[in-house]
Each structure stands twice: as C-alpha cells, then as structure tokens.
Write a sequence for this structure.
C-alpha cells in the first residue's frame, strides 16, 4: 500500500500527463520519461529532450495486459501466456503492433516494445491515468541514464514538466527485452 504523499505525487503526475505534459518517474532501474502515447506533441518533446530519432521507437508501460491490447495485433493463447508468465515484472517484449499504432511510438518497426511493470509507481501511474504511458530512460541519447531526480534535472537541456521523486525498483540494469515471435533476446540484464 502506498503512502498518501506518493499517491498525491502520482495524481499530480497524471494531471500533467492528461494536460499533454512530460513527466520523469522512477522505473525498475533508472528514471524514465513518460507521456500520453497518443499525444504526438508530448512524444516529440520527449524525443527532443533525449535527442533521439523517431525511427527507433519507444516502450509503452502499463498496469496490465488489457491496457496494452489496443496497440497490439491479436495474440495467440500461447503468446498471451508467455507474456503473462513474465508480467508484472522487469521484462519488455517486442510484440507485433496494430497497423494504426502511430509511427512516433513504433518508429520504423511493425512491432512495439511493451512491459507490464511491477513497480508500484508505474502501476499507480497507469491505473490513475487509465492506460499505458511512454517509458524511455531520462537522459540524452548516449549519456548514462539518470538514477536520481537531481540527475534528471541536470541531465536534460529541456526540462520535464514534472519529476515524480520516488524510489527506483532496485534493479541494477535496464529491463530485459525479448522478441515475442522469435524468442530472441534483444537486451539482457
């Protein structure tokens, strides 16, 4: 159960998300930048903050698989079970995207990176927001990811609209990434 101060921070962050803003928040291992994935201006602000090209694509984090389903092609029972065996948890999957998923989310790919996180802040954000949010490390491309709110403040030329200062999830490295169709490891922890 979260304390009232953290609940207030989550509600404040969600107000910023709903208004089209960009937030920084703790993930399993580092601070992430997030926004409403369907708000093109907010996503492009994150890309500018990171100096990251749109063609790379971004990760969506969610409180549960149901929040991600509008972005995914229909999955087989086996594929769904495979995802659910690792979730909620620190595993990101590359999954075939629906054809109408915006290019600013999937980049040059026909797939999308998704995770159902067990981190209580991410769970809280996605539940209060009512859907998934963008998740990408809070740093400029090529620079070490931020592990504190102060590093977020100092490490970006364009500031986040809100920094949700709370504890990281305790992982030493960013989440593992696997391809759902091939089973191939894209990034190991």
């Amino acid at each position: 159960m979260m304390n009232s101060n953290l609940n207030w921070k989550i509600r404040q962050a969600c107000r910023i998300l709903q208004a089209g803003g960009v937030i920084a928040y703790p993930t399993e291992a580092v601070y992430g930048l997030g926004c409403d994935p369907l708000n093109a201006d907010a996503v492009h602000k994150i890309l500018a903050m990171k100096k990251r090209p749109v063609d790379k694509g971004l990760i969506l984090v969610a409180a549960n698989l149901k929040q991600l389903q509008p972005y995914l092609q229909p999955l087989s029972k086996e594929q769904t079970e495979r995802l659910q065996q690792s979730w909620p948890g620190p595993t990101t999957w590359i999954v075939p995207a629906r054809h109408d998923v915006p290019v600013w989310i999937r980049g040059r790919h026909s797939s999308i990176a998704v995770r159902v996180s067990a981190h209580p802040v991410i769970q809280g954000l996605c539940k209060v927001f009512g859907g998934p949010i963008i998740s990408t490390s809070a740093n400029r491309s090529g620079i070490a990811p931020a592990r504190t709110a102060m590093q977020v403040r100092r490490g970006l030329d364009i500031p986040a609209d809100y920094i949700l200062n709370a504890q990281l999830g305790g992982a030493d490295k960013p989440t593992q990434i696997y391809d759902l169709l091939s089973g191939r490891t894209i990034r190991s922890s």
About this structure: Helices lie at 4-18, 40-50, 65-68, 77-86, 103-106, 120-129, 149-155. Residues 4-187 form a domain with the DHBP synthase fold (CATH 3.90.870.10). The chain has one domain: 4-187.
